[in-house]
């Protein structure tokens, strides 16, 4: 593993730890889908996105829309780590008067779109991509979707529309963690064969392990080739990734850990950090 | 005692479920709305549609056209907001026998923030012909409302809250379109809808200590509104304050203003959300911050009575 990938993995782990902290501190929020998307956010914010934390509204910046807005804890953590605002602010998450609302808003430096009502962020990303075409700008538009989110009609309206308008400047990433709020996606409303659906709708589709940062980066590189079609990276992930008792369940979709669970979660994430660093945790 | 309206809703659905015409739909929030209780009891007549509010409501209309009594649930902001056109065309216009029961109404949704805090649903739904619109005050009343509307033909919108609420209406009868007198007084009338009733009663107690006797009326039905009770108490007390966990536009305050100005113009003050979005924070604290508090109600009442 090269140093850069190792660094991105450590960043992802830091995003996870901060997200759990924030959700525990607020006693509300969405751990499952925050943890599943941490590696994707790390790859985006620490390698891929052309952004400037000193100038969050820079016109040439790549856009990013968190269409699955409930993963706000991981998103805010990534933005703070990237330097858009002080890490201290994360303590105010979901509290009265905070800049860091339960779901992302454009008042937060680095946030390009207010989200939280599922599906809308995907449409919004099309508008940003269309605008880039009108202005002949070369920025790319990244958008992160949930798999449950793909139940919504608006997602498929946007999918049709993006292909029709040849929006090859969109790189969508689908956090395919197999669970939504009430249970397993395939039990509630089957999505499979999901990649065939997006292909049939006119998209380039890439399949990656969403916890393998190298694979994520490679897929993004391929998507950047721009062949006239919009790009969908289906990232196979584990809901709750990194905290054993939150993994592969919908139980922690929208539930904060209690004290004991919180301490266990942080301990497990600390152990992962040691593992990535190659250190013996008992040292 | 604090009880959950959502829990009461789930329990009542199970009770009604022995009637095979009752069908329940949800949009991936069954564990929050508590329709999951019906799913456990009657899995063959429960449909978790996934995150598809529009489709859910459209399907409910089709079920109603085929003789079923569908209950469709989600958070207020999504079932009304995302699905409005479907509700309008497929349910209101056809007078379909669909019961939309929304949970997580108002600002007491709390930490999820403005995207999830529905503050305009009562107005939107009252605007639709054929719909009747109900906001129960507590869990006990929720049970009576659900049992009642199940067997009244036509579309209903019922708004419930996320937070547990104090139980007040232990055995008051629920009649569609009828206000409920909670307390009698001569100086001013406080009218509220939904879960803010406990705050209004608290305000009335404060007022009593200040030598002001207030009538308190709970208005579970926003549409059809109980004109008679509004006019009767306007004549009796000459001053009215409305209180609702909703924008001051188009909700209870507006409806009461319409009745008063057409029938018996009376001094009126409306307490509600003042044309702003909410924010994240603990639900009851937000209610205070945005002025829907016993303190604000009693202060307004005192200044109205003394001016
Ligand atoms: C339009 C809309 N309907 C319902 C919800 C409530 N809700 C929030 S998250 C969620 C489940 C999302 O599942 P998924 O997209 O798979 O998210 P992930 O597993 O990645 O967290 C639901 C139903 C919402 N936010 N927006």
What does this structure look like?
- The complex is a heterodimer of chains A (283) and B (307).
- Chain A is α/β, with parallel strands linked by helices and 283 residues long.
- Chain A has a single domain, classed as Thiamin diphosphate (ThDP)-binding fold, Pyr/PP domains (Rossmann fold), CATH 3.40.50.
- Chain A has ten helices and five strands, in the order αααβααβαβααβαβα.
- A five-stranded parallel beta sheet of chain A has the order 1-2-3-5-4, sandwiched between helices.
- In chain A, helix 6 links the parallel strand 2 and strand 3.
- Chain A is globular, with a radius of gyration of 18 Å.
- With 307 residues, chain B is α/β, with parallel strands linked by helices.
- Chain B folds into two domains: 165 residues, 3-Layer(aba) Sandwich (Rossmann fold); 127 residues, Rossmann fold.
- In chain B, 40% of the residues lie in helices and 21% in strands.
- Chain B has 13 helices and 14 strands.
- Chain B has a seven-stranded mixed beta sheet, sandwiched between helices. In chain B, strands 9-11-10-13-14 form a five-stranded mixed beta sheet, with helices on both faces. A two-stranded antiparallel ribbon of chain B has the order 1-8.
- The longest helix of chain B is centred in the N-terminal third of the chain and has 13 residues.
- Chain B is globular and about 60 Å long.
- The two termini of chain B are 37 Å apart.
- The mean pLDDT of chain B is 98.
- The chains are: A alpha/beta (283), B alpha/beta (307).
- At the A-B interface, loops of A face helix 2, helix 5 and helix 12 of B.
- The structure holds thiamine diphosphate.
- Thiamine diphosphate (TPP) sits at the interface of chains A and B.
